[in-house]
Specification:
The chain has helices at 12-24, 46-54, 70-76, 93-96, 119-125, 161-184, 215-224, 279-283, and strands at residues 4-8, 28-33, 60-62, 81-84, 103-107, 130-137, 147-154, 238-241, 244-252, 260-264, 267-276. By secondary structure, the protein is of the alpha/beta class.
Length: 293
């Protein structure tokens, strides 16, 4: 049986991938639901236009002004199923109830581990060797519903987001296909195991790299910031280096030719990439650097 599917995201590759997987499974994508992001709070504003223009011509584009208007907009296109990934609003119960098959959400972690808005950043920060993508039914809580598919893959060597996320994309498509097949069989999913914590945005306490900490902790936090942000306030990972304020973008626990060596609490760390902050960037940093003594 073919389902009418609405895709909810604000990420162009997610829209393209979900559309392709749904069609391959014999279903009909009928609409994209996204958000305007007019203040740039959730990333570059230009991404909204790119996303809308990348939607297939036959897709209606739904742009709710608030969470309260999601349900009536969804109802207007009569979906059987909603598939969601990369959408920052918590979905209200009336919207969850619109499609007869509910909402499937793709969460980039091995739930119940790393619930919350920054799962990849937290996996890197905590030194996980594996990460994954989980599709679960959305319910009234965040990232707690029954699991329909879960695909694991190694974190591997730390790499920039524009390399990591495309690598993850193939696993997202695989996991969505599995979830659609399981849902189509009438399965209700597997309740999540006990445990798992909700991990929120990074805070001012995480902005500065504290070189009195072990090198591995500094290394993980620096990389985690590439996949993270604080909801308000300065963005890390910041370091005062040779009298200058820099944002650290990449580090290594082993020597890299041309990289600057910095001493941490238990040994060396190599600074592979950093950007010097402008005066404006420095003045917007309200947190103070931690003492390393």
């Amino acid at each position: 049986m073919s389902w009418r599917v609405v895709i909810v995201t604000r990420i162009p590759p997610v829209l393209a991938g979900f559309d392709a997987v749904a069609r391959e499974a014999g279903h009909e994508p009928v609409a994209l639901l996204t958000m305007r992001n007019v203040d740039g709070r959730y990333g570059p504003i230009a991404h909204t236009g790119e996303l809308v223009m990348s939607a297939a011509e036959e897709l209606d584009v739904l742009l709710p002004a608030s969470r309260a208007t999601i349900a009536p907009l969804l109802a207007s296109v009569e979906p059987d199923l909603v598939v969601c990934m990369g959408f920052p609003w918590k979905i209200p119960p009336d919207a969850l109830a619109v499609p007869r098959l509910g909402w499937l959400n793709g969460h980039p972690s091995l739930l119940p581990r790393h619930r919350g808005p920054l799962p990849v950043a937290w996996a890197i920060r905590e030194g996980d060797e594996e990460i994954g993508i989980t599709f679960h039914r959305m319910d009234a809580e965040l990232d707690t519903g029954p699991i329909f598919s879960q695909v694991r893959f190694p974190v591997g060597e730390l790499e920039p987001p524009d390399v990591f996320y495309p690598r993850m994309g193939q696993f997202v498509g695989e996991a969505l296909a599995q979830a659609l097949e399981r849902l189509g069989s009438g399965d209700e999913g597997t309740p999540q195991a006990e445990g798992g914590n909700y991990e929120s945005f990074f805070t001012d306490d995480d902005v500065w790299l504290d070189l009195s900490r072990p090198a591995v902790e500094v290394h993980r936090l620096a990389w985690a910031w590439r996949f993270a942000f604080s909801l308000e306030g300065p963005q890390g990972a910041l370091l005062e280096l040779d009298g200058k304020l820099v944002r650290v973008l990449a580090t290594s626990l082993t020597e890299v030719e041309g990289a600057q060596l910095i001493e941490c609490g238990d040994g060396p760390l190599w600074l592979v990439e950093a950007e010097e902050l402008s005066e404006a960037g420095a003045s917007s940093t309200s947190a103070r650097a931690p003492s390393t003594h």
